[in-house]
Design goal:
Helices cover about 10% and strands about 40% of the residues. The protein is mainly β and about 110 residues long. The chain folds into two domains: about 40 residues, no CATH class; about 60 residues, no CATH class. The strands form two sheets. A six-stranded antiparallel sheet has the order 4-5-9-8-7-6, with no helix packed on it. A hairpin with a 5-residue loop joins strand 8 and strand 9. The longest helix is centred in the first third of the chain and has 7 residues. The radius of gyration is 15 Å and the shape is elongated.
């Protein structure tokens, strides 16, 4: 998945600024115009990422690639409904899945059933 960010947000989050920018919208501040484009996995901490998938009881649980901290909730999983569980956790949901996301760290777990 690609992430788009403006030069201002690149400086704020210490992301690389590209020579050749793409027209688009910043995933952080919603600026529309020339933005940098990068694969999300190149910008997030993957050291504790666990690719193991757990299956049982009619559902599957797996960890998703973390999202960069600072994104608005509407840009993390825009196709899903969401609800705040508390100041740290956000729940995204649809009829066949739940995603529990830690908005402070970017870590997220998906439960499919």
């Amino acid at each position: 998945m690609k992430l788009y960010y403006c030069d201002k947000c690149a400086k704020e989050y210490n992301y690389p600024i590209k020579e050749k920018e793409t027209k688009g919208s910043c995933n952080f501040c919603r600026f529309t115009g020339p933005v940098n484009e990068e694969q999300k996995v190149n910008l997030v901490d993957m050291k504790d990422f666990n690719e193991t998938t757990w299956k049982g009881g009619g559902f599957t649980v797996n960890e998703l690639v973390p999202f960069p901290v600072g994104q608005t909730r509407g840009t993390i999983h825009p196709e899903l409904l969401h609800k705040f569980l508390n100041e740290r956790y956000l729940l995204f949901y649809d009829k066949n899945l739940l995603i529990i996301a830690n908005i402070k760290t970017g870590q997220q777990i998906q439960v499919s059933f």
